[in-house]
Specification:
about 180 residues; mainly alpha; Arc Repressor Mutant, subunit A; 2 domains; two-stranded antiparallel ribbon; 2 strands; about 5% strand
Length: about 180
């Protein structure tokens, strides 16, 4: 299997362990499993790196995502944020509560629906995101400097296809061999 050494290098997991892990997987499914495991490993490594460089600002990558999302408009509801970020509403609420305690966001009644609450960046949140963004962008640029523009575009397209594949899975069909 050609992908084992690449995956071993990516994950840090010994090649023999990976070979044993895929031993019972049908040959045609091994490439899918390798890709899945490589994506999970890469995602963990990226998240760890992002957490390390955001640590100075006392932000998490999720808080940064929420701040960037709020910076792009006039505020939004927790429901809207959860849809954009593909996170559960309780998780978004938890993050918004923390950002509100820190003074980075404020809640206000929606001007169009008094039953709804809109979350907006505060002035402190604007300053925070303005200060963190240049460091974040320098780190991203440096991390990806060895990946050509052409490969970046192909990789984004591939990741979109992978994400769409996972989103269309209906769990109840996984119990059947032809599902």
């Amino acid at each position: 299997m050609t992908g084992l050494s690449d995956f071993s290098r990516l994950s840090g997991v010994p090649q023999a362990y990976i070979a044993k892990m895929v031993e019972d997987v049908p040959q045609g499914d091994r490439g899918a499993l390798e890709l899945f495991l490589a994506l999970r490993s890469a995602a963990r490594r990226v998240e760890h790196a992002v957490a390390t460089w955001l640590d100075r600002s006392e932000l998490t990558s999720t808080k940064l995502d929420v701040l960037h999302l709020l910076r792009s408009g006039d505020g939004m509801s927790v429901t809207q944020m959860s849809e954009f970020l593909r996170m559960t509403q309780p998780n978004v609420t938890f993050v918004v509560n923390a950002l509100e305690r820190d003074g980075s966001v404020v809640r206000a009644t929606s001007p169009t629906d008094r039953r709804s609450t809109i979350v907006r960046l505060s002035e402190a949140g604007e300053r925070l995101i303005a200060g963190v963004t240049p460091l974040h962008m320098r780190a991203i640029t440096r991390a990806l400097e060895n990946v050509s523009a052409r490969d970046r575009k192909r990789f984004v397209a591939t990741l979109a296809a992978v994400a769409e594949g996972f989103e269309r899975i209906e769990l109840d069909t996984l119990d059947t061999a032809d599902g």
